[in-house]
Amino acid sequence: xxxxxxxKKLTAAISMILLTLSVVPAQTAKAAYxxxxxxxxxxxxxxxxxxxxxxxxxLAMINELRTNPEKAWALTESxxxxxxxxxxxxxxxxxxxxxxxxxxxxxxxxxxxxxxSGNYVFALLTEKGYRCSVGExxxxxxxxxxxxxxxxxxxxxxYAGQGHRRNMLxxxxxxxxxxxxxVNGTHYWAQVFGGLNLQPTATPANNNDCIxxxxxxxxxxxxxxxxxxxxxxxxxxxxxxxxxxxxxxxAHSAIWPSGSMKISPCISWTSSNPSxxxxxxxxxxxxxAGSAVITGTMMGGNVRIDVTVTGVQGGAETPKPxxxxxxxxxxxxxxxxxxxxxxxxxxxxxxxxxxxxxxxxSYKYVVTKTNFTDLKASADSWNFYMVFPYTFNEKxxxxxxxxxxxxxxxxxxx
Length: 414
Description:
Elements: H1 12-15, E1 18-20, H2 35-38, E2 43-50, H3 52-56, H4 58-67, E3 73-75, E4 81-83, E5 91-92, H5 94-109, H6 121-127, E6 134-140, H7 145-153, H8 163-168, E7 175-183, E8 186-194, E9 209-215, E10 225-228, E11 232-236, E12 240-242, E13 246-249, E14 255-258, H9 260-263, E15 268-271, E16 277-280, E17 283-286, E18 290-298, E19 301-310, E20 328-332, E21 335-339, E22 348-355, E23 362-367, E24 371-374, E25 383-392, E26 398-400, E27 406-409
């Protein structure tokens, strides 16, 4: 178990805080903020959906892990299996739940145990009176308690990768609170453990949609770095094309929204050659054939999109969509889920796969969304996947980008 001894100057009590980060990649995290909040350097308003009925379902899963002799194990540094015995079930602490809910929201803004305010999470706990052993597990991307719990169980990880599991099996903890929120379509989970239970009296589960204000340290929400899903587009003269999705990162690698519908109202766009191409609303509108550079600026950050306009409308071939990027794979007991970044102007995606390290990829499925779950994935060999974006031309035929990276995963055995 990784001890949170992050500075020698901290007291022994603080050094007992046990914290581990989720295995789910931080780049899956997304958050949405109001344009008014962007002008405030010390706070942002985050629209969230609390789902505490589902969060509380995880308590029974944690206690089954702790009290079932066949499940209560973790690996030692040498790779041997250590069996835990005599662990008691955790009680549910409704103050720890409030803290976990807050931390789940903050994780959508800053994927770290360091809070956006610049303080470590223990400060939030000591404010509530928890002067005892405390710990935190974070996860993102799982839509329900069972899937999130399976991720945090880390059965197929080595010692270094089982920090969450050891937290759930620690005899230092007697209570837990769990938070589940949805921010901009992404699910965030937080387990907060304590060595005592300050609030065992049940409170109604919060399943509301609301705005949560997240405080940041001075200047934390300034100096944005803008990034476009595609930095170059080709279009016919006299046509209109949706802006590539633009994402942004605050200073200190905080995560901010992706998707042109949320970003573009906050961005000021200029064109090097307005007679060739310029931005109108959420679209790039082309004029005559030629080239132009469209630049977006917001709060000190900027993004560049090179636009090439060819021929006359209807007279040029339909360009291939860009190559898919940002592949991610998540293995679970139902199969393997793959995800990738949206490709501007793609009408859909063709998925090819193979099982094992040799052989040819074969056609698997066609989807219009940017994720796919292979329910027939092998648990014995690695499953490899390639994704080819396509768009329809004027005749209704698919124009396919035949370039693809690959991603792989293996189904987790039940």
